[in-house]
Amino acid sequence: MQDRQKGLLLTALGVLVLSPDALVLRWLAADAMQVLAWRGLLMAVGLSLLLSWRYRGGLPAALRRCGWTGLGCALCYCISTLGFVQAISLAGAANTLLILSIAPLIAAAMAWLFLGERLALRTLLAILVCVAGVGLIVADRTPGNSLPGNAWALAAATFLAGNFTLARSRPTVDMSPALMPGALLVSLLGFVFGGSPQLAPLQWAGLALMAGVLLPLAFTLIQLGPRWISGTEVGLLLLLEVVLGPLWVWWLLGEVPSSQVLLGGALIFVTLCVHSLLGWRRSSISLAG
After folding, report:
1. Could you please report the per-residue DSSP string of 134-191?
2. What pTM was estimated for this model as a whole?
3. Under 8 Å between Cβ of 275 and 126
4. Residues 6 or more apart whose Cβ sits within 8 Å of residue 275
5. How far is residue 24 CA from its own chain's centroid?
6. Which of 55, 142, 211, 269, CA to CA, is 20 to 30 A from 150?
7. Quick one: which of 16, 2, 11, 54 has its CA closest to 230?
8. Transmembrane stretches, by residue range (predicted)?
């Protein structure tokens, strides 16, 4: 299997595994910081087991190889997770995932600023259109829509983009071990500012499965993607969660987005699809040439 095919397959699988995350968070209906306490701890444990199996006795060395870049990835992961869980709690699944979907475009802008990568005109135009789409979502006055929640979602997208950009800055180094200290920091902040939630046994089981098994697997796979495929292709695959996440919540919990949120989301979704497909076509032509 070629590296590019490997990157596409691993990233797509990671996004599919991640897609029920918003559903679980809305189903728990607990204080965000309390959920983060156990979510971060379970994520760290699950990651350590997964990476220990993958690296055998070489995990400490893999963690050291991440260096200062890995520390940056850990901090970005921590803040993006805080933003994501707070946004899900305050603004709902659809708003959060739609705003989060612009992370690859923010990453493209960051790569232009900090890595010297060229910012294509289509990317700049896509950013402007997506900003308009986010504006529609934020301006929605339907009861239940939350401006602080939307702001948390935007913060989550920005720091997720920072994580992508840092990982891309050192493509020969696997940055997934850096997620462990990031998850532990999330847990520490959750216990300090939230404590432990009061959940039913079935809810504890769902949280343990999502945070201890599915999240470590999903983020490990997604973190590997930028090593072999472009941010454009990662962004196209991340759109799977934008579609699947709200559908899970809509289908099982009956949480229906407002028409204005759907309009803003459609604007973002179509723009990202067109942008990603144009980028994919351009890269394919370049490779063929």
Report:
1. HHHHHH--STT--HHHHHHHHHHHHHHHHHHHHHHHSTTS--GGGHHHHHHHHHHHHH
2. 0.85
3. yes
4. 105, 122, 123, 126, 232, 235
5. 15
6. 211
7. 11
8. 36-55, 67-88, 94-114, 119-139, 151-167, 179-196, 202-222, 234-253, 259-280
